[in-house]
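Data availability (excerpt). The following record was deposited with the supplementary files.
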Amino acid sequence: MLHSPQIVFTVKKVTEFNLIYNHINTQSIDRPDVLTGIGDDCAILNIPEGYSLAVSMDTLVCGVHFPENASAYSIGYKALAVNLSDLASAGAIPAWITLSLTMPDADKFWLNDFLEGLFALAKKHDVQLIGGDTTTGPLSISIQAHGFVKKALLRSNAKVDDLIFVSGYLGDAALGFKAYNEIPTILDGCKARFDQPEPRVGLGLKLTRIASSCIDISDGLISDLGHICEQSKCGAEVNLSKIPLSEEYLSYFTKNDLYKQALTFGDDYELCFTVAADLESEVLKLSKSLSLPITCIGKITDSEGIQFFDENNKTILFKQKGYEHFNES
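Predicted structure:
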């Protein structure tokens, strides 16, 4: 009697689908505007009437955007935070994200911690993970964030004589990065600012009523304010003594190096924005209502580039402009 050959299918202990369904699909966010999320080839979504869709994407690479010994929780948190910061700078309401995750191996314990950090921030802003991809390779994370916006904040609408503001403090992320190689306890608070920056989503939404332009500070103030000047075809004057610096930062750096890291390191993910001078009081009200320091550091001019002045009104030049990928200098 002839028997058909028995076909046996074997499944690896950890597969891409195991990762998706056993780990990534553990989020607690379930938005009503997601018709179809994880599990299909495409997510099907509803955009509320009267809104436009805001989309941004950032990639974080091990050894470039975070140290090799960074915790998986912090990596997950920061990967989402930097994307929500982009939505905040546009004045958008966060809604959905997709995640492309490349890992050297299928470490379920690392993945659990990574997703715990990501979902902790996602839950805070009611953001749902709706799809993505997992692959094998050097550790990198790409997130695409989607949000809704009625009146978008752009880089290109700054006007001459507008006042320039920044939220929070600048330079703490630079100190936080140093904390990976240096021990002093003075850096402990700043390490959290580098590992888990707070996207200023609430501020961005409020700024849609009063700001003429906005950008998040990811590559350093010199570089990012420079983008506003370039897109708005204007210049800027900045008073160095007005740059908001934390007590930790002030106690660590000498006077000669006081502003360099704060202006060029980046990774602070605060908002830099411009407002007409007659609306300055509205900014002060925002600062109070959000319990967030917001500082006027200068004004928009009709010249080219950014000019920095010290407390004696002396012009200060900075050779380093900010972080740039593929910069060989």
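Summary of structural features: The radius of gyration is 22 Å.
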